[in-house]
Amino acid sequence: MSSTAYTRPSKPPGPAGERRPPRLAKELGRIEPKKLGIGLVAGCCLALLTYISFARLFAIYSPVFESTSLVMKNAPPASTQQNPVLAQQQSKAEDEKDVGEDETDRKVPSFAETTEKNEEEETVTKPCRSFIHTGDEAEATISCDENGVDEGFPYARPPVCELTGDIRISPKEKTMFFVNPSSAGAFDGNGEKKIRPYARKDDFLLPGVVEVIIKSVSSPAIAPACTRTHNVPAVVFSVAGYTDNFFHDNTDVMIPLFLTTSHLAGEVQFLITNFKPWWVHKFTPLLKKLSNYGVINFDKDGEVHCFRRGHLGLYRDRDLIISPHPTRNPRNYSMVDYNRFLRRAFGLPRDSPAVLGDKTGAKPKMLMIERKGTRKLLNLHDVAALCEDLGFAVTVAEAGADVRGFAEKVNAADVLLAVHGAGLTNQIFLPTGAVLVQIVPWGKMDWMATNFYGQPARDMRLRYVEYYVSEEETTLKDKYPRDHYVFKDPMAIHAQGWPALAEIVMKQDVMVNVTRFKPFLLKALDELQE
Ligand SMILES: *[C@@H]1O[C@H](CO)[C@@H](O)[C@H](O)[C@H]1NC(C)=O
Ligand SMILES: *[C@@H]1O[C@H](CO)[C@@H](O)[C@H](O)[C@H]1NC(C)=O
């Protein structure tokens, strides 16, 4: 009986239109037991507890374990190391492309500009007046969101402070001086507030994040003199942590940055701590789309930058999921908005998948993401052949350092298929309405499969098909006898914590039974024709 809860037999998918409504994640307790196929009340409670403890586990460890080796190291990973001459040429070409795009973009009202301008923005974009001399002309305000809780996702509420008034940022001193004659806000005995501005509240990572101080001073005379004055708001954030894992590049930096600044339509100055030149270079097309000004390296800069408005830290939500929130997401941005932003930034042409059918004669395009390290699809060529037989035009590719290049490949596809892993993050480049197929390896990975990729797909208004491999389809069967707890009780692996999960579950390869898999591909095809 207990094995029912642990083995999730992959059934041929039910009829179309059965898709679950979005926002499932916050109702784990209600939905998940249904998924497990047990109606027992005890089962419900057990499931809920288990899922909450999973969340704790992933608050501490990265959901994508390969990245842990990169933590706290600023060196570029192997994937971005390339021939320097080539890299230079490429970067030049990219820069030229960016400039061209930016110009066209500015003529067309961009998505961000369609947001109604509010009073705040108007104050911000007004030419800088003599506030530096008078200091108290603008009322000093500070509001911090530091103790938010998202049950089950503790890392999803990093601290953020918003300031208005006379703000003087001195990167050399790692300090934002805040002229605060009326002593607004809560500061410690030294008039300071310290924040590590990485948008993932994860105790394991935070020691590696530069700590930035907001220092409340009673008069402008005590603050350092401005050497540069900006007419737009400042946003100070870190790119430390798990960046360069593509999942985390998005969940911990780019989506939070989009959420925090997209309404400013480029009129914002970024100051980046834990500055990694290769990372900034890699994401330049997106950074340029969000800010009309070159980024400031907070680790090296020697100026005192003055602003009338500033953010320390970024708002974020769950992983590849953005929900409306009165203060953290007051403009109700969704992942669909983020997808559109990416398409504009990279110049991706397709907003919706191909129209299929007799009239067009078009073949649906499938992109299979190949993993060459762990969780390989061993019979990828058989699966590709089956897909071709079913009428797909198949491309196989591996994601690499060239984000734009891969984004173009993904955007050209109608169906994206991959085994569970960071590569599935590339679903953000699919046209709205396309299909994501996730192959979930053995080991009771429902929580991860759902929260990291399945629910996000629904949030992005993609169609989603998931395939859970059976014990016959995993290489774990070559390592463990069938009566081992790896097969009889996979939850026991989770109970041992991340190291066991990383060593056992994350390192398997899969060999899909094409007979069993076929109905899922047919379902993907059906979804496209709906
Ligand atoms: C955002 O959504 C909430 C409901 O979730 C709604 O009350 C509010 O008016 C929306 N705000 C905007 C700016 O659309
Ligand atoms: C493959 O799946 C089919 C359908 O579920 C099943 O009948 C068959 O035994 C499986 N083949 C192997 C080798 O497990």
TrEMBL record:
Topology versus the membrane: Single-pass type II membrane protein
Glycosyltransferase 61 catalytic domain span: 288-437
Record-linked PANTHER family: GLYCOSYLTRANSFERASE, OS06G0470000 PROTEIN
Keyword Glycosyltransferase: yes
Name used for this protein in its record: Glycosyltransferase 61 catalytic domain-containing protein
Cellular component GO terms, alphabetical: Golgi membrane
Main localization category: Golgi
Gene source species: Oryza glumipatula
Sorted UniProt keywords: Glycoprotein, Glycosyltransferase, Golgi apparatus, Membrane, Transferase, Transmembrane, Transmembrane helix
Comp. bias regions, Polar residues: 76-91
